[in-house]
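Review form for a predicted model. The reviewer records the input and the model, then writes brief findings.
Reviewer: anonymous (R2)
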Amino acid sequence: MIPVKRLCLSAILLVAAAIPAYAHVGIGTTSSAMAGFTHPLSGLDHMTVMLAVGLWAALKGGKAIWVWPAAFVGVMLGGAALGMAHVPLPFVEPGILASVVALGLLVALVDLPVSAGVAIIGLFALFHGHAHGTEVPENAGGLEYMVGFAVATVLLHAIGIAVGLGLGMRSRGVARITGAACAAIGVGLAFGIV
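Model under review:
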């Protein structure tokens, strides 16, 4: 088993090494599974949200551990389909930035019922998915790209869950501080500081 400190340090370094996100539409290649896989790993906003969902699910425990990440991935894929179909969705970029702050604050401060968590996570997943789907060029099917970013999202959720479970009940304060750090990253992204 991986020591908790090493796992936490690895997750923190992974987040810190991310390239800050730029406007989503039109950035990078979007026609392969590898491009889809690397996209969530290429922006601090994506990585922070995905890790926060996993961490929040681990803090909640029970069925939230699988329901919240599954809801995120499912709604994200639906949002991607909407983006690929050119269905407009207002406030995508502000919604993505808000998701970083809000999910960080939820980790830090809030214990909600599983159904409320699904609704909040689903809303933010819709924005993330729509941004991904809008990136897919019209001459590409986008299926491989969607599979790639779904797999990367699941892996980031799993890292967040592993960190949360590794910290356990004894270190809930550390997990809450991590959530506050996620919120701070979101504020930094919103104001161009990070």
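Findings: Helices lie at 4-16, 33-38, 44-60, 64-84, 92-109, 114-135, 143-167, 172-190.
Further findings: The two ends are 34 Å apart (CA to CA).
Recommendation: see findings above.
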